[in-house]
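Please think about what follows:
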Amino acid sequence: MGAAGPMTGAMYYILLTLTVPSHGYQLMSAVTQASRGRVQMGPGTLYGVLTRLETEKLIEIVSDDGRRKVYAITESGRAALRMETERLRSMLDDQERWKGEMQCLTE
C-alpha cells in the first residue's frame, strides 16, 4: 500500500473494521461506528473498495455461504494499516512541531 500512495478514508476504515471479520451490511455499520459517523458508505462504494483490497491481498473472504461473504484483514492488510496509521501520526507530529517552531496559526 505504501508504494501505491496514501489510503482513502474508506480504505482505512474498512481495513480497521475488518480486524473483526464481517459481511457487507455489518461492515457498513462498523465503518460508520468506527469513524464516529464521519464515513458512511453505500453498497457501491463498499464493494468497490472490497474488490480492490481483495485484489491487493489486503483482505480475504473467510466464509461464503452463497448469500453473503464474510471478509477479514490479512497479515499484509495489517501491515498496510500499521503503515498508514504511522503516516497519519507523522503528519500530525509534523503539524505540532511546525506550530511550535514557527509559532504559526494552523487552526
The helical segments are 9-17, 24-34, 43-55, 75-102. Residues 26 and 70 are 9 Å apart (CA to CA).
